[in-house]
Design goal:
The complex is a heterodimer. By secondary structure, chain A is an all-alpha fold. Chain A is built from nine helices and no strands. Chain A starts with a helix and ends with a helix. Chain B has a two-stranded antiparallel sheet with strand order 1-2. The chains are: A mainly alpha, B mainly alpha. At the A-B interface, helix 3, helix 4, helix 5, helix 6 and helix 7 of A face helix 1, helix 3, helix 4, helix 7 and helix 9 of B. Chain A: Keywords: Amino-acid transport, Cell membrane, Membrane, Transmembrane, Transmembrane helix, Transport.
Chain lengths: 215, 306
């Protein structure tokens, strides 16, 4: 237990960096994911094909490989803004297709009758989207999106293996110093992760319940 | 088939415009790709004035004429597949066990298995690997296998539980009514149906498992990633690292895409039933916004479990 108390600043330092990775990569993945999803449902065939290929390729590449590319090969190609931004780039790219797929599933989930009803009362394309489709799609998309962010939280740990000092890095450092209390230290790190993931899970559950009533 | 209910059917002018945009799009995308390839291939002058050959230069790729390289890569692939195979073989029964525990009527079984499941699902696989490696000192192979098996077992267990829950209540009632015990109702009536429905999700999760074997790289297991992007470039020299990266990427994509393709085939064969119960994606009866026909049927690919 004393290993945790005396190393608390190190834990908090790691926790802050994990939150930083989560926040920055989360926002980045959301922006990129919306863009990819828009390409994916656009009427232009070539954009659709590009977005599909991007989604399939990135989704089937291991995160470790993506982060390896960012941490080692981008500096080798003379692009080196530091390991933290590189990890953010890697996590953003890796998470974006999952965001895009969640968005697409949400838009798909709106019943066709909704659009038909809106059109038949004379709403234009823009009105149909903004007043009828989008309000429903956004609500439905939030729980799966939160699941994506929960996965992202866990994925930030991989950045710890590529020179970013976050919770996993903190775990490695502290277990190196205090080999006698490995179990307590790792449980403490797990508690920090669970603090984020369980909170997000509760929010997702609550939103889901609300949506279920509305549907 | 009407394209979309959102706007009126396009006339000749609109169709022309859409085709023009498509062509421009193709040119833009291909132009960007060609520029990228050329930029990567251009020779670079480093800070001390020495000129490095471009990334597509033969001197960066001649290493692949060496049979030993391919043998090492093959060993890496085998190590990856071995870890994924053993982990999957443990994860599947574990998932079944978890789903039974969580769907149990007895709170003494249900509550602890719920707690364990939530704990395992909320923790990074990498942390679990490190934990098992340090606490049980199992060696990197079994640390990786154990962490992957427990984590994916939990996810598969949740999927199966959702499958059992989505069955009509009459199934269980009928089983009990003809005199089966609760356990044998679950084993012989509910579970086979849930498993069939959830098969696409389970296979998608196995793709995730195969991808996640690369995490064992961090705890020191010599699988494809460590062999391909660490050991081989260390041995043959840094100038090959990009080439090795590309080859490893191609191998991973080939493995994962073929498994994903299998998942899609099975999803199609189990039919619309398999799609309706996808736990994350909302059920999709129809598709108003997507004009292209491929939109449906790709739903059940487990897109929400990165």
């Amino acid at each position: 237990m004393d290993a945790i108390i005396e190393n608390l600043p190190v834990f908090l330092d790691g926790f802050r960096n994990t939150l930083g990775l989560l926040g920055l990569a989360g926002v980045g993945a959301l922006v990129l994911g919306v863009f990819i999803a828009a390409l994916r449902i656009s009427p232009v065939a070539s954009f659709r094909g590009f977005a599909t290929a991007y989604t399939e390729i990135v989704r089937n590449t291991p995160l470790t490989l993506v982060l390896f590319f960012c941490a080692f090969l981008l500096p080798y190609l003379q692009f080196s803004p530091g390991y933290f931004p590189l990890a953010v780039i890697g996590l953003t790219v890796y998470t974006s297709p999952f965001v895009a797929e969640a968005l697409r599933a949400g838009v798909n989930g709106v019943h066709v009758g909704q659009a038909e009803a809106a059109r038949s009362v004379g709403l234009t394309f823009g009105q149909t989207l903004t007043y009828v489709i989008m309000p429903q799609a956004v609500r439905m998309v939030i729980p799966p999106l939160i699941n994506v962010f929960i996965a992202l939280t866990k994925n930030t740990s991989v950045a710890g293996a590529f020179f970013v000092f976050e919770l996993f890095g903190a775990a490695r450092k502290i277990t190196n110093d205090r080999g006698d209390q490995v179990i307590a230290i790792l449980l403490a790190v797990a508690a920090f992760y669970l603090l984020i993931t369980i909170t997000l899970g509760l929010i997702a559950g609550r939103v889901e319940k609300k949506v279920a009533v509305l549907r | 088939m009407s394209l979309s209910v959102l706007y009126d059917a396009p006339g000749p002018k609109a169709r022309m415009r859409s085709r023009a945009i498509s062509v421009v799009g193709i040119i833009l995308i291909f132009g960007a790709l060609v520029l990228l390839v050329l930029a990567l291939g251009a020779p670079k002058t480093s800070a001390n004035g020495s000129v490095q050959p471009g990334l597509w230069d033969a001197s960066r790729w001649n290493v692949f004429t060496d049979v030993q390289v391919w043998r090492s890569l093959g060993q890496g692939v085998l190590a990856t597949l071995a870890m994924a195979g053993v982990a999957a073989a443990i994860a599947l029964p574990l998932g079944v066990l978890f789903s039974f525990g969580r769907a149990s009527d007895n709170p003494l079984i249900r509550v602890p298995s719920t707690v364990v499941l939530e704990f395992v699902r909320g923790m990074p696989v990498l942390l679990m690997m490190l934990f098992i490696l340090l606490v049980f000192s199992t060696g990197s192979f079994w640390a990786g296998v154990a962490a992957l098996a427990v984590y994916n077992g939990a996810i598969i267990g949740e999927a199966l539980r959702a499958g059992i829950k989505s069955l009509p209540r009459g199934q269980r009632e009928a089983g009990l009514a003809i005199g089966l015990t609760p356990i044998s109702t679950r084993m012989r009536i509910e579970f086979p149906q849930a498993f069939r429905q959830m098969l696409p999700i389970i296979i998608a999760q196995l793709v995730v498992l195969l991808k996640d074997t690369s995490l064992a790289f961090v705890v020191g297991y010599s699988e494809l990633l460590r062999v391909g992007v660490k050991n081989l470039p260390d041995f043959f020299g840094n100038r090959y690292s990009f080439s090795f990266f590309m080859v490893v990427l191609a191998i991973y994509l080939a493995m994962n895409l073929s498994l994903s393709w299998l998942a899609r085939v099975i999803a199609r064969r189990t039919g619309s039933k398999g799609r309706a119960v996808t736990p994350d994606a909302p059920s999709t009866p129809a598709n108003p916004l997507l004009a292209h026909p491929r939109a449906l049927g790709e739903q059940s690919e487990g897109g929400n479990s990165p």
